Amino acid sequence: xNQYNKLxxxxxxxxxxxxxxxxxxLLCYSIRALQNWRHRGGGPKFVKVSSRSIxxxxxxxxxxxxxxxxxNTSQQTR
Length: 78
Known about the structure:
alpha+beta, 54% helix, single chain, Arc Repressor Mutant, subunit A
């Protein structure tokens, strides 16, 4: 597999939708924490497929984690 194919696979994986359980597992948080963040704000972006079906893009989860990443305790997060 060449570098272009590897990059293409990574891009496709970032757009892949995962359910609440997979997202919670990826973040090491509970499903309830994700539900609270959706209700109150502050969590990763999500896709509302229907009134009872929520999905997360892997890329949005990675972006949210990057926004929360700091280098010292006095640094503010977004």
